[in-house]
Amino acid sequence: ISEGSFHPTDLLAVFKQTTSSTRSHIRAAVLLYNTIEIIREMVYTHTMAELNHTELLSSEDMETLLDATGCSTEMKRPVCKSDCLSERYRTITGHCNNRQTPLLGAANTPYARWLPPEYEDLHGAPRGWDPQHSYHNFILPPVRAVSQEVLYTQNENISLDVSLSHLLVEWWQWIDYDLTLTPQSPSTTSFKMGADCTHTCSRDTPCFPIWIPLSDPRAGLQSCMPFFRSAPSCVGQSAMWYHREQLNIVVYGSMVYGSSEELSLNLRNCSSHLGLLSHNQPHSDQGLAYLPYLQETISQSMTRKTLTSMGNLTFCFHAGRPQGVANEHLGMIALHTLFLREHNRLAEELHRVNPHWGPDTLYQEARKILGAVHQVLTWDHYLPHVLGNKEYSKLIPPYDGYDPKVDPSITNVFSAAAFRFAHVTVHPVVSRLGPGHQLHPDNPPMPLHHSLFAPWRVVEEGGIDPVLRGVLLSPAKLQAPEQMMVEELTERLFQAQEGLPLDLGALNLQRGRDHGLPGYGAWRELCGLPIPANKSEFAGILGNVGLVRKLLALYGTAQNIDVWVEAISEPALPGGRVGPLLACLLAKQFRALIDGDRCAEEQITKTQSLSVSRIICDNTRIRLVPLDAFIRTLHAEQLLPCTHPNVTHLNLSAWKEPDTDIDECSNQLSACPVNLQCSNTPGSFICSGMHAYIRSFHTG
Ligand code: HEM
């Protein structure tokens, strides 16, 4: 920023920023990983022998390395407390949800794997690292070629979903914010040669640039699109099991509350006795709360001086994803704001029901209710639309209580492929609607890329209500073989003054290879689905000869196809929006998430009646809502008033406790010290500076 420029990759870096607890884990893991690689190379140079991990290092050597790099500390089993707060509520970090294996499903732990990774060198080199390496006798195509030939769709050339609203797409992303965040390598230069990953076309970890084929419209302008490998994690490199694993740094419930103690305290309003979350001080949405600014956490004078010299003063919102990620997209800002308000509304209501509860109990109970609401909305309302009712009943049996043997960790294939399927349902245009559900002449529909990292559009262009009305009344994009991913995402992702925009399709494919995801045949096998032996069987699966021809021309054999692109190519199951492979992978993950959550059972039954529409009614000035917010509303006349009995309230009297009961939890030492000072984080300055640039870019 001080050099007066930033690149699309800088925005991607903001998107993947971490907190300090994650950074210490990554530092240790990078050190360990690089040291082992050096030892491996030295041994190879002397002996010309590729040794496996047990031959390379004795277990004592490995223990020494783990200690020296700091990985032993990072991998240490946490001690689970047995006080009132810890017994009753999920920890912020997810530690101790499973009492026997306290790290299961916690933040800052590696993704689980359902299949062993397929790295090109067995340890950590991505598939396609060596462009000449063959798989089933074919070399892998450059991911950008797949994006151009299979995914690219002109914005105008899309079909609309006849029955589902764009809120469903936003909910997908919202839930994703809750479940997965993979940090990228913190270093921007390659380990061995010191090359700058933003400019180099050579492959040297963490640089894994995406090559631009000669036939690409970008050829001549760009030879490679920068790509940083995901950071390694400590676990997975023990003496027993040595290959590169990737970290998930978030945990269920984190988009509102954060997934580290440090961030969660930063988001609380510790001077309130009602257990509230902090809200924005300088601005409000006609009296309703906005998310606080990251800006508020740093020295105003320094920032104002620097930013004023850059032109417009702009700010990032601050929420549970680290360092301003909530700002990625207008829809996400609206949902983050909505749930901040819902937390505060619940905490105040709970105070009325149980005036004897202290601030920590109010905070934790409101948090627990919001967690349950998300489970009900996701498992009961959203998943049937995605899987189709029939498949849903088959794959997601009725909830049968907590099972401590189930590992609720997010899997690598879920984050790097399966849950990215919704990228092909994103509409290229963002519409905001006024109170009469009409477009406002001052805020015409805008291309998607103008809504990315643009929080000022909320504050200065009417608040979150127009955004929410827009997503409620706009349809989702329909996924179809010739209409995969809109050019807003393949050609204009994170457009900035410097460098060419990124391509989300290419990033998804490259990420799958970076994480060592096996080709699609292995996943079909895992799911008990047939693997096509020839072109006609493959055409039978995809139901589209043209698409099969394109994929086989690129990959040579169906076995090699990157799992994400094949999975999104399968035709949707009846009534659903995904094909059989995605249905299997998503259902498997969502089942594990709920069955392995010790805190799920009691809350789910109490919060059945709540809907997204009710939450919108209770926290915005929107007075007309759909009965099911995920269903597309064709005409505003179909909307119901918030007073309609079918837009059911959550009855909080179920939470009433006799006021003779002592509030044990608030008698403990409070987690939230009064007058807590927010921490001064360098990320907040970077984020604000970038916003000044993006804004000036959007507004010319
Ligand atoms: C405006 C729309 C969206 C944009 C601009 C966007 C952008 C991105 C970007 C840039 C990444 C990182 C890519 C990489 O380097 O690997 C990503 C990852 C991801 N996105 Fe999206 N996305 C959008 C919508 C969605 C939706 C609707 C979903 C629904 C589920 C979703 C799910 C995911 C998942 C699961 C990841 C992996 C996250 C991680 O592990 O860090 N995204 N997205």
UniProtKB/TrEMBL annotation:
Ranges for domain NOTCH1 EGF-like calcium-binding: 661-693
SUPFAM superfamilies in UniProt: Heme-dependent peroxidases
CDD domains in UniProt: EGF_CA
Record carries keyword Signal: yes
GO CC terms, sorted: extracellular space
Gene Ontology biological process terms in this record: developmental process; response to oxidative stress
Keyword presence, Iron: yes
Keywords, in A-Z order: Disulfide bond, Heme, Iron, Metal-binding, Signal
PANTHER family with a match to the protein in the record: EOSINOPHIL PEROXIDASE, OXIDASE/PEROXIDASE
Protein name per its UniProtKB record: NOTCH1 EGF-like calcium-binding domain-containing protein
High-level lineage: Eukaryota, Metazoa, Chordata, Craniata, Vertebrata
